[in-house]
Amino acid sequence: MHVDVKTNAVEIAEELQHRIDRRLRFALARFGDRISRVVVYLSDLNGPKGGIDKSVRVLTRIDGVGLVVAMVVDSDWTVAVDRAAHRIGHNVARSLIRQRQRVSGVNRSSNAAPLPRGR
């Protein structure tokens, strides 16, 4: 799996680059060869002003499913990267479950009890 990091004129330290790669590989390792591409976009929404403005957006292409996205905004790059990695792992798992249910014809609503009618 190749992790491509893109920024909008934000200088990122080599340590942060390694953290992004390491955290995403850990979060997505269980999905193996199903993931064909991972792109991470880093942007500082307010520039040098500070505040809660570090945006990390992760786009993951999954074979047979399509594009899965996670986005986090935080005041700290490290926290934003960690949360985005966790979130993309969760979103990919959920997308694969949905895809498996569509293929097998399972419909969650058919198993649910009918809602009572109001008077």
What report would you give on this structure?
The chain starts with a strand and ends in an 8-residue tail after the last helix. The chain has one domain (3-106): 2-Layer Sandwich (Double Stranded RNA Binding Domain). A 4-stranded mixed β-sheet has the order 1-2-3-4. Helix 1 (14-28) runs parallel beside helix 2 (77-104). 39% of the residues lie in helices and 28% in strands. By secondary structure, the chain is an alpha+beta fold. It is built from 3 helices and 4 strands.
- Annotated CATH topology: Double Stranded RNA Binding Domain
User: Approximately what portion of the residues adopt beta-strand conformation?
Assistant: 25-35%
The total strand number stands at: 4
Q: If helices are DSSP runs of H or I spanning 4 or more residues, what is the number of helices?
A: 3
Order of helices and strands: EHEEEHH
Shape estimate: globular
CATH class: Alpha Beta
Give start-end ranges of low-pLDDT stretches: none
| The CATH homology group name | Ribosome hibernation promotion factor-like
**Helical content (DSSP H or I, runs of 4+):** 25-40%
